[in-house]
Amino acid sequence: MRDDMAKLIVERPRLGGHGARKHRPLKDLDLARDKIGMGRAASETGDRKMLNENLAPLRRYITGQVGRPWAKVWAEICANLSVTSTVQQHVRDHISDLVAFNGVTRCGGQVLVLGRWGGPKPLETSWFEFWVDPATGILRRNRQLQTPRMKRKARRKEWQSNLRKRMVERDAQRQYHLLDDGAWWEVTLEEEPTAPAKPNYRSRVVNGKPLSLPFVDVVLRAGLSTLPRHELYGRHGVYSVAKRQLSREEAKRLKLRR
Question: What's this model's pTM, rounded to 2 decimal places?
Answer without folding.
Answer: 0.51
